[in-house]
Amino acid sequence: MELSESVAARPGWLPRTADARSSGTRRTTNRADSVAAAAENTRLALLIAILIAALHVFMAVTAVNTKSPTFDEPQHLTAGYSYWVRNDFRLDPENGNLAARWAALPLVFGDTRFVRPDDPSWQSADEGGAAHKFFYELGNDPDRMIAQARLMMSIFGLGLCLLVYRIGREFFGVLGGLIAETLLAFDPNFLAHSALVTSDVPAAFFFTAAIWSCWRLFQQVSLGRLAIAALSLSGLFLTKFSAPIVLPALLAVSVLQITAKSEIAIRFGQLRTTLIETWQKCWAVGGTWLLLTMTVIFAIWSSFSFRYAAWNDNAAKQKDEGWHWNYVLEQHGGLENGISFARVHHLLPEAYLYGFGYVHKHEGDRPAFLDNQWSLVGFSSFFPLAFLYKTPLPFLCLIALALGVAIARRHHWKFEKLLNPFAIFVAIYAAFAIGTQLNIGHRHILPIYPALFVACGAIVHLLQKKSRALFASAIAILLSWQIGESLVSRPNYLAYFNQIAGGPRNGYQHLVDSSLDWGQDLPALKTWLDDHSSAVNGKPIYMAYFGVADPKSYGIDSKKLPENHSGGDQTFGQLRGGVYCVSATTLQSVYAREIGPWSEAYEQQYQTALAEVERYRATASDPSARLALVANDGAVSWVKRIRIFERLRFERLCAYLRHRPADAQIGYSIFVFNLTDGEVDRALHGPPAELTRDVRVAGY
Question: How far apart are CA 313 and CA 559, in angstroms?
Answer without folding.
Answer: 40
